[in-house]
User: What shape does this take?
Amino acid sequence: MVEDASCSLFYCLAWRLLCFFIIIYFSRGLLMEPSSLLSKQIRLPSLRLKYFAYALLLVVLPNLLFWILAGLTGTARPIINLDYIAAAALFALGWKPAKWAGGLLFWVALLFDVLMLVMQQFPFMDLLGALYLAPFIMKAPLLYQILTGSLLLYLLLMPLILSKTADKTDFFHVSVLVVPLLIAAYFTGHLQYYERSAQFNLFGANNFYYAKSQYLLYSSSQNADFIKQGFQSPVFMPLKNQQRAASHLLKPQSDKILMIVAESWGQPDKQALQDAVLAKLSEQKDRFSVWESGSFNFIGATVEGEMRELCSYSRVHGFGLRRAPNEKFAQCLPNLMKKEGYRTFALHGASSALYDRFSWYPKAGFEEVKTAENMIGKKTCSAFGGVCDSVLFDEVSSFFGKYNKGLFYWMTLTSHADYPESDLFDHRLQCDQYGLPTDTDLCRNFSLHTQFFDGLAELVKRPEMKGVEVIVVGDHPPPVKNIGETIKYLEQGRVAWLHFKVKD
Assistant: This one.
């Protein structure tokens, strides 16, 4: 449920505005001709089918484009967005000031409808994030530019269309339609015409309601504890004596460094399983001048795993990293390496709005950052609707083909919980051979990592990768729904790491 405070922002304004204009509209006659009103019988207007049809059109029209967009983008949306109801009623009053107010409410409702659409493509989206991402549409594929243009045209034309439609009906017929609709929505608001699994419940990706307010759904998503942390100013805790894989880079063995933080890569209780995950790489040991691996203790969120490796912070309380001053990132690895003449590059398949990476990545010293908004049109996977890791290996080889001295940092994504089977195409790992049941979350997790490391094994064969020093480390242990799996099949609270160097 949404807190009353959030409700007052838009809803209370919308319905108070509607009530205000209704009172003004119907009081005009009373003020001008009180005697004539007393002498007349009050009769309800007769229900006319034509007027009712236009009233229905007034409710349906604002939703039409978003039905099409939801189908094209594979996103979730209520069949009827209730936010447009107050605007429709104001248009139907027929009074010019009321129509202007209806147009304003329509634009506000449209804003939240668009945000709920965009948020499913780029999670952690808010108004500031949307403004940041807006310029990237100029670099997007033609289809996305057409869709954006359609939205802008819709913003300008739809209020005019609604106004003309309202002229062909009246407030009574609109009320006959929307009042039962609002009552039905109140009692059946929990019902959905389609329901996705738990992994899709964040960021509006399961909003398949019959009739619901997109504004209230947006407010509800922003009120989740996980999201609230994204707006809290961070407090950084130093790493002290805890381990990090990046310590190998304090004295790098190459001018070409690939550092990968692998999403949810933990240490299984049986080393044979981890060996199987890395098998395609270990088969090439004769091509490497360095080969070592292990694990160490770490518990935290993804961004804390990144902070551990890049900036030597053990914990971060509050993830509003855009609020952190530059000096908090002065000693981060990219900044230090940049001073040594390294070209620094960061890659991540999700939106840069996620964990404020658009802000703190440059502060940490990355000269170039490439995230989902820079790669619109590339194949996407389930995790946050982000770009699949499997299509990003070319980014790595391209970088080292250009620069002889550089740090390429990659925060992976596809192995994020809930480890959907749909993102798996490499089925080399046979979990049951290592005592891990195939129907477990952890089996899918290690299968996704196997898929990634098999891709990495092919990547390091490319000529551009000669001499590259590689660090791969888990951000945190893999979270699973069944805690029994963690206890039985994982080394508790440990992340895995791998360090090797391709021979020149």
